[in-house]
Amino acid sequence: MTDTEELLARTRELLAAHPPAATGRLEFLQARFDAGLAWVHYPEGLGGLGAPRALQAVVDAELEAAGAPDNDPRRIGIGLGMAAPTILRYGTEEQKRRYLRPLWTGEEVWCQLFSEPGAGSDLAALGTRAVREGDGWVIDGQKVWTSSAHIARWAILIARTDPDVPKHQGITYFLCDMTDPGVEVRPLRQITGEAEFNEVFLTGVRIPDSRRLGEVGDGWRVAQTTLNNERVAIGGMRLPREGGMIGPVVKTWRERPALRTHDLHQRLLKLWVEAEVSRLTAERLRQQLVAGQPGPEGAGMKLAFARLNQEISGLEVELRGEEGLLYDEWTMRRPELVDFTGRDAGYRYLRSKGNSIEGGTSEILLNIVAERVLGLPAEPRTDKDVAWKDLVR
After folding, report:
1. Which is it for the CA torsion 34, 37, 43, 47, positive or negative?
2. Which of 38, 45, 329, 336 could form a disulfide with 33 if both were Cys (CB 3.0 to 4.6 A apart)?
3. Would you please indicate which residues are annotated as catalytic (active-site) residues?
4. Do residues 187 and 151 touch, judged by C-beta distance below 8 A?
């Protein structure tokens, strides 16, 4: 069992062999991965040491104090939070060794090809087809709301391989090379003026069977691992006290007393407490992950994340008065990451509206919490045993 002292010794050995001030960023990150200090709870040889997940904080603190570079986790969040744990659980040894290292170092960015124009909240109704041809598959269809598709090298993709069985049973999970012929990425401009989302058209895209993840027809089960990790990644992110959306509001409140009113004070107190409770609950959730896979509790955290962001950003706009109605930049851009705290109040207000849609709509997450956390009766589903090809669309 790797303990704190051993991790500290390994981290100091890494720093001695690769001083951050004299080592290139990518070289340092690759060395860190090879030393097992990328994600210490992963197996040896795959960026980890098989150590308790909680000990990652020991490594991170030591490296931060030494001025070591990080892997820009906001830019590669889909790879880190969704693709990596799914590949680790269902991938072959060859797949794990091929994809995990460049994923973690940020050499290869990942995106998620799940949602479709007719299959968003009802994801299992997806219609993108994967047809077996020789030693591979031919993919045709359309995906939507794809964050980072414009910078991604790889995608996690689910497609229908059998239309003659109920919708959840005929899905298979693939790893798609976004540079392959037939992959077309088009920007979707949002209310913020940016286009961090995209729609992706797949026309005759050929994927070798060696890039299939899990068994044929078992894609829905594999996708549940991705989705559970996505909700934890969004709702369970590690933040300091007054981190995230509550930070700019509190800063404005303290620095500009002329804006204060009794009503705004009461609302700010309530939201500050809720943000702190959410932060601590996220910490507890991360500790629960030490011994296993994320469960449906992540849905509750993601729900709280969306609601709090929208209420806090609304309060910030009100607090700033006329100034809160200003907007800094409407130029069409295709950013590499979402920066909630680096822009103005107007951006935060508009961008937070998407929080209740991305990563699972709040309505669907409420069902998950009701059924899988509280044990309430499931809603009636008339299409559960109907072949996908016979569904009304």
Report:
1. negative
2. 38
3. 230
4. no
